[in-house]
């Protein structure tokens, strides 16, 4: 390989099995960077996003941490808030991702688990992309089985995400997540292929 890890961007719409698939890569010994977990750390007490967000959105910070619920209420009523939020958070997330890649510089393959991979242009950083998918009825059933998620919230989240068909068209690799065994087999096959192609 060319002295740096091969970067595989992993994405998929809500309810498609992305987190489960990311865990399969981790179980196979592939280091996985999780964009959601990174944001969670940035929002936690002492996180790098707390002070700048407290300055920009005072009502969104409570007890030294960013309240996602308060932030979501703010985003719902202020159409300019999202771009201001992203201007603060995206550079911090990018710095965390760069630190992860640097810390695993000797690894042959890294997975970057990014929900909005194509929407944010983060696919440009990746050597290849993997989209996980499932039929719409399966996706809907999975999402509505989650505690506290309504059909209206599901529709709102879907509206912010690129359509599944478009993601699949842009992806280097696609895995359908109908059963755990099949998904795991497809993940292991892809790891072997990427290791073989880029050894």
Looking at this protein, list some descriptive labels.
alpha/beta, Rossmann fold, 52% helix, 14% strand, 199 residues, single chain
Structure description:
This protein is α/β, with parallel strands linked by helices and 199 residues long. The protein folds into 2 domains: 1-31 and 110-193, P-loop containing nucleotide triphosphate hydrolases (Rossmann fold, 3-Layer(aba) Sandwich), CATH 3.40.50.300; 38-103, no CATH class. The chain is 52% helix and 14% strand. The protein has 9 helices and 7 strands, in the order E-H-E-H-H-E-E-H-H-E-E-H-H-H-E-H. It has a 5-stranded parallel sheet with strand order 2-5-1-6-7, sandwiched between helices. Helix 2 crosses helix 5. The termini are close together. The model has no long low-confidence stretch (mean pLDDT 92).
Task: Tell me the helix content.
Answer: 40-55%
Shape verdict: globular
Number of β-strand runs: 7
Number of domains: 2
The order of strands across the largest sheet is 2-5-1-6-7
Question: What can be said about this structure in brief?
Answer:
By secondary structure, the protein is α/β, with parallel strands linked by helices. The protein folds into two domains: 1-31 and 110-193, 3-Layer(aba) Sandwich (Rossmann fold), CATH 3.40.50; 38-103, no CATH class. Helices cover 52% and strands 14% of the residues.
